[in-house]
Design brief:
Length: 380
Amino acid sequence: MSMGLLFPTALAALAAMLLPLVIHIARKSEQLPTDFAALRWLRSRPKPRSRLRFDEWPLLLLRLALLALAALWLAQPVLFGAGDARPYVAVVPGAQVDQGSFADARIRWLAPGFPKIDTARPSGPLPVASLIRQLDAELPAKTPLTIVTPTIIDGADADRLRLSRKVNWRISGETKAAPDKVAPPPTIAIRSDADHRAALRYIRAAALAWQPANRNGEVDSNTPNAPLPDKGHILVWLAGGTMLDSAVDWVKQGGTMIVASDTRLAADQAMVPLWRDAEGQMLAEAMTLGNGRLIRFTRPLLPSQMPILLDADFPSQLRTLLTPAPSPTRVAATDYAPLTGGRAYDQPPQQLRPWLAILIALLVLAERWLATSRRRSIAP
């Protein structure tokens, strides 16, 4: 542990310690002159030199200490490395833990706020990976960390955990893995003109391939002048020329649209590559438009220009393009053990100002008691 000052320039207030010294030096004991008639005619003698003297040493020292502590309080002293170094045990809800096997350790649920283990078990989806990183950042570097987890972790993120310390990773308890949720197929609406009738057949075929067997296979397909669908649909705009203002506003309000390669966009904004074929040739690019997302094919939807249209997996690739698969959040605990080599964060120092405030208050009481005591000599 080490001590430091957050505002060291405040120590300039120590100059105020000169004030009690000046007061005590200038203070004189009370003198009552008495005249004697016989002494009036004596020749006056030079006065002896006055010597520097300090009266009431306890009161002087108290006042000096009081001013010194006040200056130190203004400098905001802190104590580094004073964190709790006791072992810390974090239990992922769903794991089984024997509290008796962790003597003298702090046992907490791995949940927001890190409640004690004797409280109710947290429920609901929890950001397990983020909470583990938070613990690693907040605990002192020398604090041993143990994480007790079930066999399946629900709340992981796409990145493997990399912490600043070695973690005692314990797998305890059985948790059944819930079936992975499959995202429903996107619902599309098509607006096309006569020049894009050939491209329309490939988009319709892909959309029909997404539909479950119990669907009637109908796709909302109409001309560009038809009313636009709600934002729950993905709008496929197969029309050349400048896109209608109503369609642009539809995207800006939060819609997702994919347009043909010959559709001119009014927005002057750079687009980023989004889809490439096996040879690395770009097939689609995208940009953000207002609150929505706009995707544009870079080639005409013709087999001669885009051979991928004839591939059997074209519907699945187009579906991934329109609805990217979410990152997995459920992993096996054995595959998610944290790695070391992560960044170590500086721990917040412990403030000493509250303790100094108490000490200053006690010194003020002692100073007032001495200053008002009847035993004190009378000042002029």
